[in-house]
Amino acid sequence: MIQDTPAEEEPTAPVPEAEAEEPAAAPAPPPAAPVAPAAPARRPLVKRHHGIVRFAHWANTVLLLGMIASGLQIYMAFSHFGIRGGPYYPNPWDGKPFPLWARLGGWLAGGLNWHFALAWPFVLTGLLYVGYLAVSGEWRSILFRPRDVPRAWQMQLYYLRLRKEHPPQGKHNALQKLAYTSIVLLGALSVLTGFAVYKPTELHWLTALFGGYELARYWHFWAVWIFVAFIVVHVALVFLVDPASLRAMITGWYRGRFPSHD
Predict the structure, then answer these.
(1) 226 Cβ contact partners less than 8 Å away, ≥ 6 residues apart
(2) Residue 120 buriedness (CB in 10 A; 0-12 / 13-18 / 19+)
């Protein structure tokens, strides 16, 4: 008897397992709020000028302006340089009067009185300032030296806008050192020529050193205009370059863009 063989079952394809569901992507964080740039740190307030320096600065400013005005009044008594009758030394104001508002004293004697009254405080204040520089050692920060020549040139290029970056400096830049050194020497020249004109007989050796009475008077006169030029440039640069230095010369304290020490 033939037995029926059971039919072989066809292999069934494996049922693929359900694919694991991928986790949902986390939502993107909201964009960060823009951060405002940090405010620049405020410069520290530092002591810049001693009281003696500030006193001498403002006292000599007033005294010098008075001496210039009274000197112009004295000049009007004889507005030439040289022996009467000529020839006269070159002078763009030869024979020309200065306006009344620029003169002090009203007439020759009044101009002389004012000039002498202001001259002695000017000399004493100048000696006080120079003495302080010598004792404190601060003269080192304003003395112009040969090594400052290239730095002065770079500073001049900056002022002429031929250099973009401000040259590095200490308490004073090289041009300031040149100006402050020169102004002390100019003050000494003004005092010495003034004495040579004031006492030409008693101080005949000093008068002769300047070439005689007429030349001593001539150099004294030109020193005035160098002072005037210095004042104009000095004040202009204070306001254009470093206005904070004005407050420092009043209060002694400085909060500005430049160092206060070398």
Answers:
(1) 186
(2) exposed
Residue 48 is classified by DSSP as -
**From CA 256, how far away is CA 44, in angstroms rounded?**
8
Domains of the chain in start order, with CATH, are: 46-254 (1.20.950.20)
Length of the chain: 262
Rounded Cα distance between 64 and 47, Å, is 27
Cα–Cα dist 260/248, whole Å: 10
Task: Enumerate long-range contacts of 79-86, CB under 8 Å, 24 or more apart.
Answer: 81/214, 81/217, 81/218, 81/221, 82/214, 83/214
Tell whether pTM > 0.85: no
**Which residue's entry shows tokens 């306006």?**
99
Distance CA 165, CA 86 (A): 52
Q: What is the pLDDT of residues 220-252, one digit of tens each?
A: 999 999 999 999 999 999 998 889 999 999 999
